[in-house]
Structure formats: C-alpha cells, structure tokens
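Our consortium's second objective concerns turning raw sequence data into structural hypotheses that experimental partners can test. To show how far this objective has progressed, the report includes one record in full. It was chosen at random from the queue rather than selected for favorable results. The single chain below, 212 residues long, was entered without modification.
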Amino acid sequence: MKKQRLVVLVGIAAVAIGSVSISGCSSGQAATATTAATPGVTQGGTVDSAASSPTGAAASTQGSERVLPVAKNPIVNTSTKKGLEIASAMVENNVDPATKKDIADRLQITLKNTSGETLSDLEVYYEMKDTKTQKTEGYYQKLTGFSLAPGAEGTVFFDNQGGAGHYPENTFSLYRTSANEVDFSIVVSAAGYAPALGQAVKAVGTGENPGE
C-alpha cells in the first residue's frame, strides 16, 4: 500500500511540475506577442504602429526604441540661408573618419557647419529606393545630443550602436534586405538654415566582402 501511495504522489508531483512548465512557456509567448504589438516611440518621435509603415516593413529594436518607416518627410524648413552641408554620405565600403579604418556597412553622414554659430537640434530624413522593384521607405530621426561648432565637421552613424553620434536603424529595411541596388536620398535640417542634401548608393548584392 505504501508503495502504491508513493507512486501516486510522485505522479501528482510530476503533473504539477509539468503544468507549471507549460504555463511558463505560454506566459512567455504571450509576453513576447504583447511586446511586439505595443506602440513605442523612436528618438525621432516616429510612432511604432503598423499604420505608420507604408511598406509593412518589420520593426528593428534597440532597447525600448523601435524604428519604422514614416509615410512622408516630416521636416518643414523653407530657409534658403547657407550654413549646413553634407560633406559625404556612404552606405557601403565605410571608413571611420576618426580612425581611418574600415568599418561595417551602415548609413554614415558627415556634416559640415559653414555658418558662424553652433548648430544643434538637427534632424534627418532619408529615403531609400529599390531601383528594381521601385519600392521606397523613408525614415526620420532627430539627432539628439549632436551639435556642430562653427566651421566644424561631424559624422553620424545609423547602426544601432551606443555612444555619441550613433543612432538606431531598421535592420529589416530595404537597405538591409534587398539584393538589388538601393538609392538613398538624404535631407538634414538645422533651424534657420537651408536643408543640406546628399545621395548614397548600395550596389547590387547583400552582405559585405572581406576587407570592405
């Protein structure tokens, strides 16, 4: 009798443990689904909702930030006063301007302040276009924490890395997923000065070759 009761108790304990494990998995799945569906905000103020994505691109997450395409360029700047320039823009074969060493491909913009005052509160809008499918995606970002002294140059990187001058990107964008050529059109704005314009091109193919 004792042996039978012991087997029954062990069986009950096993069922209880199995129930907890299953419940834990189910809870984890529900939490993941809830997190993915919860609206968030990027540094640039882009609302993370499916409605804001004209192409249905997936979101890329860096911490609590989410990066999704915006329906149109939100920058409103009609100034014609010169003072901000895009010295260079690249999305492949990148070189760090500080170390002069090759770095992984990313959107990289070097800005130059030709005005007589410090420029801050900059904002950027960049649009990428798959030249084969004609699909487009546009992204907006406030360059929080970035400023340029008179006559200075500075570089910003969109790479999901931390530190000054680094900002989030969507790793599921056309740039990161298309094997076709992707053209970039870039607008950078500073209050009181004409927007700076730039271009960059990702060639056909995906990934990087060693040494690039």
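The partners drew two points from this record. The CA atoms of residues 58 and 99 lie 33 Å apart. The two ends are 75 Å apart (CA to CA). Both points have been shared with the crystallography group to help prioritize constructs.
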